[in-house]
Design brief:
148 residues; 56% helix; Hemagglutinin Ectodomain, Chain B; elongated; Nucleotide Exchange Factor Grpe, Chain A, domain 2; three-stranded antiparallel beta sheet; three-stranded mixed beta sheet; 6 strands; alpha+beta; single chain; 2 helices
């Protein structure tokens, strides 16, 4: 009987250690996952901060009220726009082509349908809001107007 109790105590101790190891593993994985998520967000957000700085400079130029600032302001905003597009493209974000294409409910969201003799039935006539993909993943569908 004493041997069986000793064996039971050893098995119970092993089981408790294994349970503690499993609990520590779960906590470590949760901590690592949170760290990876933070790193991924930082890697994406960091280049956007440069774009934000550019916008702040452009807005401060406009705020001075200097009449000669209008053209440089527009050019600056266009440059910032291009830089933002390049930053998103570097992350694998791509716009979904729409105008003149056939409506695809997997990537397009129809917000209106119009009669149009110039377009084939089910052809996209106008893009209301751009849609985007991240690699092959759909981030946001395009909102479009479709020919009837």
């Amino acid at each position: 009987m004493a041997e069986l109790r000793d064996e039971l105590d050893r098995v119970n101790a092993k089981w408790l250690r294994a349970l503690a190891d499993l609990d520590n593993y779960r906590k470590r994985v949760a901590r690592d996952r949170a760290c990876w998520n933070d790193d991924a967000r930082a890697e994406f957000v960091l280049p956007l901060l440069d774009v934000l700085d550019d916008f702040e400079r452009a807005v401060s130029c406009e705020a001075t009220g200097d009449p000669g600032c209008e053209r440089p302001f527009r050019e600056g905003v266009e440059m910032i726009f291009r830089r933002l597009v390049e930053t998103l493209e570097a992350q694998g974000v791509r716009p979904i082509p729409t105008k003149g294409r056939e409506f695809d409910p997997a990537v397009h969201e129809a917000v209106a349908q119009v009669e149009s003799p110039d377009h084939a039935s089910n052809e996209i006539v106008e893009e209301v809001r751009k849609g985007y993909r991240l690699g092959e993943r759909l981030l946001r569908p395009s909102r479009v107007v479709v020919a009837a």
